[in-house]
């Protein structure tokens, strides 16, 4: 079927529209949203298989040939990210049934949830730089609504910060695209890439390096890289657990994906300045992230700073630009989306039980909630990268890539960061779950058993991803292959 | 004290039709001349805003009993529907078709599915603008 790769964008779009009509009836909204989410998972799974068998898929929207129309491109990286997105979206969606509250559900929670997915899937799949901007905006506007929906004081305050930062970075995105357009005269990503290699046969001209840095600043603001992550700890602190899980798992990763895409497709001829900048700032983010993660005694803050660590690790892998590091980056990116969603959902349950996110006020949870405790334990080990679980292979490949690229300091920092990441989540486990059992007000009302299913499913998925590395690795290596050889991408789009 | 706005109310009755007609003209002319769904929708919303200025929110919603949020959703459905419609014929998403037909009185007319897409844009713009203005207006 010609239109296969657009389905992950169209399904949530139509669902979102239909859900606006159904806004009066909460059960109907839940059923429609869940069904469409399942359909999206099935479709994205088929796309991954299709890309595996037939190579990079591209679709010229409205039948205009590339580079004149908008082209959607689904290479292995995009397809896998779309699949991961749909799985996480489904679990977060069903998790919100019992945790988000009727008040939000009545006010267009589910439609906006679906529009967020339109933006995320669109940003992963698009092959046009301006279209990527549009999908970024779709995603960001939905995230503004999800962040402020409910209207508590902290949400309103943090929404203003989030809004300001993202409006500025979006304006910078438009400026960056305008500069790039005035230099290369095209917006199709594959065409931009081939134009750039035409004009930079003897080394990349200075203006392109400047545009590269500008793109880096733009996507760095979205993806929370040192020193552009300042907005994240506050803004992500505000929304309720399922929304937070969605943000933590998807939004920053779209920024990371965009950096990966532009730097491997556009700016790969650069003499080294951009990759050094990327590597340096990625390592700084790792350091800044672990400092934050070990400094706080707050459940949400610890996990939020772990996002910054993960973004740093992935981008360090991207900056090395060799086969094993890129494979590691792809593998770690998918692992991190899954495990961050799981951790935020688990932390959400802990907060639902205890009514606080202050770690010093929580102890002895394992006595009453052993299932929650051990799920958290496994998730923590997976986050740090203990061998049978999913974080291991990604980090191993990144460190291997670092050693191959003679970047010993970076590889060492990544390894050291694992230790501190493990320390930060074990701090939650030891202080929160061990110790003297306490009773908390209103803990009977928390539907722990129902809520626990979803993070447990994610942790199980992460364990399977780690154990079944042999099965997954060909897919990852195909994704890394496209990143290493932009020609594959360009030929799939321009069909020369 | 009740102010008698007789001049405003009378002139609005005339102006409203002219503005609405002009917005419809701009909407339909979009393919060949400057205009289209966005500016047409804004102008229609402008006409309704003029009504709101002359009368109050309750009177206007009695004159035009429209739920603007649903109108927005209908607009989105029209736009998405024409795009998805292309998928039924196994051509890429958003592919449009057109045909020329001969009509009595109007002569040769080109019918294009992009117009339906534009109608969707038109509804969304009217819906969103009116939702924003009404919500702020009703806010105490």
Percent helix range of chain A: over 70%
The fraction of residues in strands of chain B falls at: 5-15%
What is the 3D shape of chain A?
globular
Q: Could you state the order of secondary-structure elements of chain B as H and E?
A: HHHHEEH
Structural class of chain B comes to mainly alpha
Termini of chain B, distance in Å? 21 Å
Main sheet characteristics of chain B:
2 strands, antiparallel
What is the average per-residue confidence, as pLDDT of chain B, rounded to a whole number? 89
Biggest interface and residues each? A-B, 17 and 18 residues
Output the number of helix runs of chain B. Answer: 5
Note the main sheet of chain A: 2 strands, antiparallel
Strand content range of chain A: under 5%
- Compute the CA-based radius of gyration of chain A: 21 Å
The residue ranges of chain B in which pLDDT falls below 50 over 5 or more consecutive positions are none
Task: Please tell me the overall pLDDT of chain A.
Answer: 91
Biggest sheet strand line-up of chain A:
1-2
Name the descriptors.
heterodimer; A: 496 residues; mainly alpha; two-stranded antiparallel ribbon; 21 helices; 2 strands; 77% helix; B: 140 residues; two-stranded antiparallel sheet; flat
């Amino acid at each position: 079927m010609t239109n296969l790769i657009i389905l992950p964008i169209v399904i949530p779009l139509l669902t979102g529209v239909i859900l606006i009509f159904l806004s009066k009836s909460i059960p109907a909204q839940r059923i429609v949203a869940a069904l469409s989410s399942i359909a999206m998972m099935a479709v994205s799974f088929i796309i991954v298989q299709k890309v595996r068998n037939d190579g990079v898929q591209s679709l010229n929207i409205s039948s205009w040939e590339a580079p004149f129309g908008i082209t959607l491109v689904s290479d292995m990286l995009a397809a896998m990210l779309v699949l991961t997105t749909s799985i996480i979206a489904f679990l977060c969606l069903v998790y919100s049934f019992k945790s988000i509250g009727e008040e939000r559900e009545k006010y267009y929670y589910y439609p906006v949830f679906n529009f967020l997915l339109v933006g995320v899937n669109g940003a992963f799949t698009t092959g046009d730089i301006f279209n990527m901007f549009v999908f970024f905006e779709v995603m960001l506007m939905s995230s503004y609504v999800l962040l402020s929906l409910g209207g508590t004081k902290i949400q309103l305050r943090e929404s203003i910060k989030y809004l300001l930062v993202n409006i500025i970075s979006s304006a910078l995105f438009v400026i960056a695209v305008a500069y790039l357009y005035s230099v290369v005269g095209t917006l199709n990503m594959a065409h931009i890439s081939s134009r750039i290699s035409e004009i930079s046969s003897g080394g990349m001209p200075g203006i392109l390096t400047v545009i590269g840095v500008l793109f880096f600043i733009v996507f760095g603001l979205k993806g929370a890289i040192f020193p552009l992550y300042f907005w994240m700890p506050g803004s992500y602190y505000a929304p309720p657990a399922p929304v937070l899980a969605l943000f933590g798992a998807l939004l920053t990763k779209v920024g990371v994906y965009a950096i990966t895409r532009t730097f491997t497709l556009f700016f790969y001829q650069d003499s080294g300045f951009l990759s050094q900048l990327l590597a340096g700032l990625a390592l700084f983010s790792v350091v800044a992230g672990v400092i934050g993660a070990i400094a706080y005694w707050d459940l949400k803050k610890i996990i939020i700073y772990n996002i910054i660590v993960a973004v740093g690790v992935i981008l360090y892998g991207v900056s090395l630009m060799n086969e094993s590091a890129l494979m590691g980056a792809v593998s770690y990116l998918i692992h991190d989306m899954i495990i961050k969603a799981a951790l935020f959902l688990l932390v959400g349950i802990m907060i639902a039980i205890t009514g606080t996110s202050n770690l010093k006020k929580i102890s002895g949870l394992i006595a009453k909630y052993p299932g929650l405790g051990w799920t958290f334990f496994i998730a923590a080990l997976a986050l740090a990268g203990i061998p049978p679980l999913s974080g291991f292979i990604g980090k191993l490949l990144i460190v291997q890539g670092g050693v191959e690229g003679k970047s010993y300091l970076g590889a060492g920092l990544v390894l050291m960061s694992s230790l501190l990441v493990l320390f930060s989540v074990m701090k939650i486990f030891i202080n929160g779950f061990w110790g003297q059992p306490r009773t908390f007000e209103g803990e009977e009302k928390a539907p722990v058993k129902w809520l626990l299913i979803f993070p447990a499913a994610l942790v199980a998925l992460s364990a399977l991803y780690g154990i079944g590395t042999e099965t997954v690795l060909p897919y990852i290596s195909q994704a890394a292959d496209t990143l290493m050889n932009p020609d594959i991408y360009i030929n799939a789009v321009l069909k020369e | 004290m009740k102010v008698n706005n007789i001049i405003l109310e009378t002139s609005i009755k005339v102006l409203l039709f002219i503005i609405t007609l002009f917005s419809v003209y701009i909407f339909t002319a979009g393919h060949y001349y400057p205009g289209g769904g966005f500016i047409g929708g804004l102008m229609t919303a402008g006409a309704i805003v003029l009504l709101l200025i002359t009368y109050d929110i309750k009177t206007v919603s009695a004159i035009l009993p429209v739920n603007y949020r649903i109108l927005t959703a209908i607009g989105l459905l029209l736009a998405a529907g024409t795009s998805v419609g292309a998928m039924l014929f196994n051509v890429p998403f958003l592919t449009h078709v057109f045909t020329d037909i001969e009509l009595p009185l109007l002569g040769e007319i080109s019918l294009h599915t992009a117009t339906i897409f534009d109608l969707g844009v038109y509804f969304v713009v009217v819906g969103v603008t009116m939702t924003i203005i009404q919500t702020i207006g009703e806010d105490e």
